[in-house]
Design a protein that fits this description.
heterodimer, A: 124 residues, alpha/beta, Rossmann fold, 5-stranded parallel beta sheet, 5 helices, 5 strands, 22% strand, B: 159 residues, alpha+beta, Chemotaxis protein chec, 3 helices, 37% helix, 32% strand
């Protein structure tokens, strides 16, 4: 079944690359939306339900770590899977994000295969 | 603390990983000694702080930035790539190279925090900082067609 996605990254190029890579991974993608930072993402999450949110960490206005915390307090996001997509790769940071409610972590640079490996167990 | 040679190797491995995985371009170290970037160029810059602080710059000409942007987005390379797209792409390249380098070298460099990338455009761009910084310069050849320069400036802070 096709899944809806919210992609959150301050780079519009990176949002397009993430979208293209997920489509190349073979996962069934439905409706999609984009946000340029955590604040924009909160507004999108209030207005619409998403199956997945793919989220950068270092962003202006509101970063990914704060967004995860706020999203997990929103009833609208109860079933939204949150996957962090970032160049940050320290174990301590990743453990903290997973403890705060993120469901997975993908490091940049990435491939369609990496997206498939990380997302397919959560997709169904 | 990493030796300069080891930093060069880690940086080159990081650049190769990013260009081969995300930009679909093979790279080789260039043995050109002269200034290799002629004409208008873009430079993606990203700073870091912590036990070691500094700045990474990735610089290439406009046609090279257009090709990088097109390859990242899966579009046809042409000369009509928007400036904003090229800026965005060059910022992301700097971000990903430093992220990959950080993962490789954090054991020796200690903890570092990374800034949000910025991009400048102009001619004869140069990445430099105040005194007492070490500088690693990599001149690379992209697909035998373009050149790019990577400069890593760093110094220990004693934090």
């Amino acid at each position: 079944m096709a899944k809806s996605l919210l992609i959150v990254d301050d780079s519009s190029t990176m949002r397009k690359i993430i979208m293209r890579t997920i489509r190349m991974s073979g996962l069934d993608v439905g409706a999609t939306a984009e946000a340029g930072n955590g604040l924009e993402a909160i507004e999108k999450l209030k207005a619409e339900r998403f199956d997945f949110m793919l989220c950068d960490i270092n962003m202006p206005e509101m970063g990914g770590a704060e967004l995860v915390q706020k999203a997990r307090q929103m009833p609208e996001c109860g079933n939204t899977r949150i996957i962090m997509v970032s160049t940050e790769s320290s174990e301590q940071l990743i453990e903290g994000l997973l403890a705060n409610g993120a469901n997975g972590y993908i490091t940049k640079p990435f491939t369609p295969e990496k997206f498939h490996e990380k997302l397919s167990p959560l997709w169904n | 603390m990493l030796s300069k040679t080891s930093i060069e190797e880690s940086l080159l491995d990081s650049v190769k990983e990013v260009f081969e995985t995300m930009i679909f371009m093979d790279i080789e170290l260039s043995d050109e000694n002269e200034h290799i970037l002629e004409g208008p160029s873009f430079m993606g810059l990203i700073t870091f702080s912590g036990d070691v602080e500094g700045c990474l710059g990735v610089c290439c000409t406009n046609p090279c930035a257009a090709t990088i942007s097109a390859n990242m987005l899966g579009s046809e390379p042409d000369n009509h790539a928007g400036e904003q797209e090229m800026k965005d792409a060059m910022g992301e390249v700097a971000n990903m190279v430093l992220g990959s380098f950080k993962a490789r070298a954090e054991g020796e460099l200690g903890k570092i925090q990374v800034s949000i990338p910025t991009v400048v455009c102009g001619r004869e761009l140069n990445n430099d900082m105040v005194a007492r910084t070490e500088k690693v310069l990599l001149k690379i050849n992209l697909q035998g067609e373009y050149f790019a320069e990577l400069t890593l400036l760093y110094r220990q802070t004693g934090k």
